[in-house]
Amino acid sequence: MEDWKITDLEKKLIATILFSDAFDVAERNEIQSIHFTTEVRRNLFAKMEEMHKEGKSVSSDLVFLEIKNIGVSSQDFFDIVKTETDIHFSSNLEAFCQVIKLEYKKRKMHNFLLSSAKKIETEGIKAVEEITLNFTTLEKETSNSTIKKVSELQESILNALDQEEDESIKCGIHSFDRPLGGLKAGKLLVLAARPGMGKTAYALCLLEGIVEQGIPCGFISLEMTEQELIERMICMQGFDNNNIRKELHRKDQNIRNQYIQHLKAVCSIPLFIDEDSGITEIQVRQKLYFLASKGVKVVVIDYLQLIRLPGKKLTTEEIGDITRMLKSLAKKLKMTIILLSQLSREVEKRADKLPQLSDLRSSGDIEQDADAVIFLFRPEYYIDKMMLSEADVINKIEMQINETAVIFDKNRGGITCRQYCTFEGKYYRFKNEVAESKENNKEPKYIDIDTPF
How many CB atoms lie within 10 A of CB 322? Predict the structure, then answer.
């Protein structure tokens, strides 16, 4: 490709990213500042990369405010952003990213061959050893850095073997910790259920067990307000939610004092809450970068189907884009992301009401990207709605009325199973009593998913 063509391509790529805030495409394709042919574009892209890592929007107006700090003139900046792009270019960004990387490799190889020829001309056979070494270095610089020979991994694996403690994080909820072996960095976990099953409450219980260890966590809420979340956590401390529902915490001084005491306890934990309904995929990414900068190790997103795209509803393909983005960021930011998800109404058409993978909206993409898919099932909810009878729950589904089943229908690196716990509605709290009593009765810790209820 001629220089003027690659120059035009580089300008188009930067302009498209600036006007559509699409830096994630460049990031996914491992584009770096060194891949650009001029210092102006290298400096500009490096600043864009820095802003992206800080969770800022990489838009033309915000980047323009920074150009003086990186030695880019207004004229050079506008020369780039005025570059004409079209739908064809925007829809093929990934392919053009690969072209830019390929051209970079060709330039490096061209310069290497020229310098090697001059060395041989002046130094003769003595230059061969240095040229060979330089070629090995060039190969490493221009190849995919994630590819490693197995022997290169030996040292890091041995170091991990010598670590005194397991780096996984335990939540204290047995029905969750046992099948997973704790939370591990880089994992995307999907917690799914029909409305009313207690997804948010269960997720808050998981976070409560983590923050009590002093480990920072985050909760991105697209549905509930900050006050609602805080009040749920107050109830989890042992404060009856009926006091809030009947507003007794405002009217009765003793109850008010209890409320304030629990509030102070909740507000002392290392938990970051973000309340922002209708946010976009880009905004979710920015929030995750911010939370990572604060040392957050576990983030709950409540919930997937409320993430929006400008001007339209999520499609199956777009949900797949979001889950892929979240999985990629979990690995990059070294955190665990627990993504809450709704299930389709197909669950309630079945006699037993038990959820399964096909009930996930866009189940194929979610199942593919998630390291684990976990369902919550509370038969008591369906009994109250007169959709299940107590006899069916006990005799056919083989559960107790007050039990909650935590169903691991996918568990990468672990077993698929069903665990049990209890839900205390007035405290929005899940407890371990059922799991412990089953153990005491010498029932199996894990119930194989293939074993019918």
Answer: 24
pTM, two decimals, is 0.68
Q: Which of 274, 374, 359, 285 is nearest to 321 (CA)?
A: 285
- The helix/strand/coil state of 49 is helix
Contact yes or no for 355/343 (Cβ under 8 A): yes
Domain spans in the chain, listed from the N-terminal domain onward: 1-164, 174-448
In the block, which residue shows the tokens 């610089």? 141
| Fold (CATH) for 174-448 | Rossmann fold (3.40.50)
Torsion angle defined by CA atoms of residues 29, 32, 35 and 40, in that order, rounded to the nearest 10 degrees: 130
Q: Which of 284, 287, 300, 275 is nearest to 207 (CA)?
A: 300
Position 3, amino acid: D
Q: What pLDDT digit, counting tens, does each position of 365-421 carry?
A: 788 889 999 999 999 888 888 888 889 889 888 888 888 999 999 998 788 888 999
Convert 38-57 to b/e letters by CB count within 10 Å (16 or more is b): eebbbbbbebbbebbeebbe
Q: Determine whether domain 1-164 maps to CATH 1.10.1040.50.
A: no
Residue 143: pLDDT band (50, 70, 90) is: low
